[in-house]
Amino acid sequence: GMAEIYLAQEPMLGGGIRIVVVKVLRKQLANDEDFEQLFLREGRVAMQLSHPHISTVFEFGKWGGHFFIAMEYVEGATLKEILERVALHGEKLEPEVAVGIVARVASALDYAHTARDARRASLGVVHRDVSPHNLMVRFDGVVKLLDFGVAKVAQSEDESRSDAVKGKFGYLAPEQCRAESVDGRADVFALGVCLWEAITGRRLYKRGSQFDTFRAILEEPPPSIRELDPSLPEDLDEIVRKALAKEPGNRFAAAGEMQEALEQWISNRGAIVTAARLRRAMGELFADEIRSGPRLEADTKVRERLRATSVHPPLSTSERPPPPDAALDDAPAAEAPSRPGWVLPVAAIVLLAALGAGAFFALRSPEPTGPSAAELAARDAERAERETERAENEARAAAAREETARAAAEREAAAADRAAAERAAAQATVEREAAERAAAEAAERQAAAEEQQQQRGRREPRTERRRPGFVADPGF
Fold this sequence. Notes:
Layout: E1 3-11, E2 17-25, H1 33-47, E3 57-63, E4 66-72, E5 76-78, H2 79-88, H3 95-114, E6 135-138, E7 143-145, H4 174-177, H5 184-200, H6 210-219, H7 225-228, H8 234-243, H9 255-268, H10 275-285, H11 287-292, H12 300-308, H13 324-327, E8 349-350, H14 373-459
Antiparallel strand pairs: 1-2, 1-8, 2-4, 3-4, 5-6, 6-7
């Protein structure tokens, strides 16, 4: 990703600490204006959102030459991890639990879609990256929506780049695949995919290539959940199918409407999906993780190096060492830091590989010395990989648009052929009717002529012709 993720301890006023997550824009991307704006926009958007099912952002900005976002630490598991853990046991989520999780995310999306800033102007937020990777359930049963990194906002500075396809393949709405303008109904579609997968335990749109995935999203009707499990209720299938409609106008008009349908479905079954029920389910699935707490994925040697330098190589994820507090017990003490509080002391920033972190470095002066040749080469390779990925995304979007245009042209050609045939048929009908009228008129004229002839024959007197022979006696 474009950021490195750290778990940090923030000293609190009056004592105590708060664990926070710190996202730091990779330094090699700090001079890339596109990535910088994306990163800062995520902070701006998330800072204005306050909802129980959206992860909280405490602070964002630039400090010590690094762009950062400090946010709530969500101790739990993503929906993706939950489904994988359930599958390991050869089971599936209870439909009520799956619906309960998704209904809470729908409420978060509905809030984001309708949120306003301090001046009461609409923020116009569309998440655009709703997927099981960004839906989390805390171990205490609270559901959280994460990562507004590619969110669309009203009058966004990057909306002119309409060709860019943002989001995870397999969860894009059809209009996103076509690089068209999107609204909250695109998030409804993505949430529908999450619901389908949470209920069935399978991936919905995963094909051999990303182009095939695009084609499936654009053209293939999603299988009914009842085809995979006939025991699932028909009314639940109707909700899923409505969320997955290809045309935005056929989906739920708003995420809140989808939330109401899901909660009504749960209520109709006489069920209740509380945070306590989700907490019990998480306790059964992640008992070991809950007992152990957050893990510092590093061995003793790495922890010793942590105190000696601010730059470290990637850490191994194969071991399960003690929790962060134990790892830091022997770290040197530090004075209470100035704001931002989570950047000092150095030993208080704990890398958590489970959150996807790479290298470790401290956000304070003095900064590390210049990069080595190997680091520069790695940066160049990463930049090239990023550019290649961007080009591939644009090529896939262009191919999808070309395919859509081709299909539209074929439909237009077929429609034109049908119209020409209809015009020819109409012309033939007109000519036939004209010929029939002409024949009828000729028949009428002939009948009239015959009638007149008969009438003349009746009016003329008949003259008898005298037979030849002797003349009558004249009387001589």
